[in-house]
Amino acid sequence: MPRSVQTKLPFLKSTSAFFLLLAISAVMFGTPGIAQTRAVKENAPEPVDVPVPRNIKVVDERKEKDGTIIRTIHYEQGGKRIKETLIVRNHIDLHVPIDPDTMDKDKVLVLVSKSRFVVEVFYRSKMIRSYKAVFGPKPMEDKKMEGDRATPEGWFTIRSKNPKSKYDKFMLLNYPNDTSVSRFNALKEKGTIPKTARIGGDVGIHGIWKGGDDLIENGICWTDGCVAVKNKDIEELYKFAGVGTKVYIRK
Questions:
Q1: Model's pTM, two decimal places?
Q2: Predicted pLDDT of residue 88
Q3: Hey, where are the domains in the chain?
Q4: Which of 138, 89, 129 minimizes the C-alpha distance to 109?
Q5: For domain 9-52+91-250, which architecture applies?
Q6: What pLDDT sits at residue 156?
Q7: What are the per-10-residue average pLDDT scores of the chain (251 residues)?
Q8: Phi, psi of 95 (to 5 degrees)
Q9: CA geometry: angle at 200 spanning 199 and 206, to 5°?
């Protein structure tokens, strides 16, 4: 069945105000319940391998008056043929000149919006970057357990970094943290997930294999629950963010 994903315009005033408040509160007051590890850690574990989407074909595309692009895509993944209908808004490629070597990593905040397919970087409460991103196959679902391929929502920190990942570079998040564990246990108690379910892990932000940028550009959600961006973007983000950098993921 086709999957429709709707995104909002990336810089509506209400959204910017929301993100700005998050940035200010996180930078000034910290994030409760999240360990602030400052020691540099490398060689983060790799995300789980997933079948590579192949033979991507745009079979229909039209542009609305407001700039919205409605695109229908076919591709093959893991022996299955998949059809997706994507509704994508204009993306602003924000680029504020800044030297990552002079940045105070404690003042960096990474905000991930799954509904808008973006990763935004704030520095000292000012947005300095906006990258296109994709997630697990059902981006609007919060992660419940291992194997559901959903991208978790909430506050996290970067636990460790791997500069030589098969996905170019990989930054591991501290999922599951205390909040994730509490939610997971509550879902078990309610019977929403099986009693035998496991919470999972190895969720992070990473790039993509060489020549795979079309998946990001077209909004194809293929990961096992991680956040994926183009390689040129993960190269830059890797310099901005450090171990302990706060990451907020929302719908």
A1: 0.75
A2: 66
A3: 9-52+91-250
A4: 129
A5: Beta Barrel (2.40)
A6: 98
A7: 39 47 47 41 67 78 79 78 72 85 94 94 95 94 96 97 94 97 97 96 95 89 95 97 97 94
A8: -140, 100
A9: 140
- Kindly report the number of other CB atoms within 10 A of residue 95's CB atom: 10
pLDDT at 69: 74
**Rounded Cα gap, residues 69 and 223, in angstroms:** 23
* Burial per residue of 52-87, b for 16 or more beta-carbon CB atoms within 10 angstroms, e otherwise: ebeebeeeeeeeeeeeeeebebebebeeeebebebe
What does residue 75 show for φ and ψ, rounded to 5 degrees? -160, 165
